[in-house]
Amino acid sequence: MRKSLSALLIAAALSAGVVVTPASAAPRESGFECNPLDSGLLCLLVEARDVGVAYDKNSGNPIWVRFGYDHAGVSHASPEEVEIYPDETKSSVWLEQNLQCGQDIVGWMEVRGQRRFQTPAVRIC
Predict the structure, then answer these.
(1) Are the beta carbons of 110 and 68 closer than 8 angstroms?
(2) How far apart are the C-alpha atoms of 122 and 120, rounded to whole Å?
(3) pLDDT above 80: residue 5
(4) d(CA 80, CA 119)
(5) In the structure, what pLDDT confidence band is assigned to residue 10 with cuts at 50, 70 and 90?
(6) Residue spans of alpha helices (H) in 16-94
(7) Strand partners, 44
(8) What is the mean pLDDT of residues 105-118?
(9) Domain ranges of the chain
(10) Residues 6+ apart with CB under 8 A from 110
């Protein structure tokens, strides 16, 4: 049985040293949004000053992607592309970010040879 993407994102964040609480427990400091795509689910997790973006690919051909997020007019990108196969989840986590209260945070992935796909915005505070 496959784990849910939120559980995988939380596990990835915990392995990176991020303390994660459910969004309902700290609605002013955290948020979680996903965008269902044709071949998977793209999600953004914001917890205090940490940001995670993940893609759970469930079908199609392997793809090469670069993860990132936009916030307060600045784009932040992972340093390298990663290859994702069907039934795989990959993510990037940015720790201790300078997040501006009241500003949208949008997660994204750029797929080589295609385009940029985005999550719905999360706004903290």
Answers:
(1) yes
(2) 7
(3) no
(4) 20
(5) low
(6) none
(7) 33, 53
(8) 97
(9) 5-123
(10) 65, 66, 68, 116, 117
Q: Report which DSSP code applies to 25.
A: G
What proportions of the chain, in percent to the nearest 5, are helix, strand and coil? 10, 50, 40
- pLDDT exceeds cutoff 60 at 75: yes
Tell the CATH superfamily of the 5-123 domain. Answer: Immunoglobulins (2.60.40.10)
Determine the residue type at 123.
Answer: R
Q: Which residue has the tokens 């303390």?
A: 19
**49: amino acid identity, one letter:** R
User: pLDDT tens digits for 20-67?
Assistant: 434 444 445 899 999 999 999 999 999 989 999 999 999 999 999 999
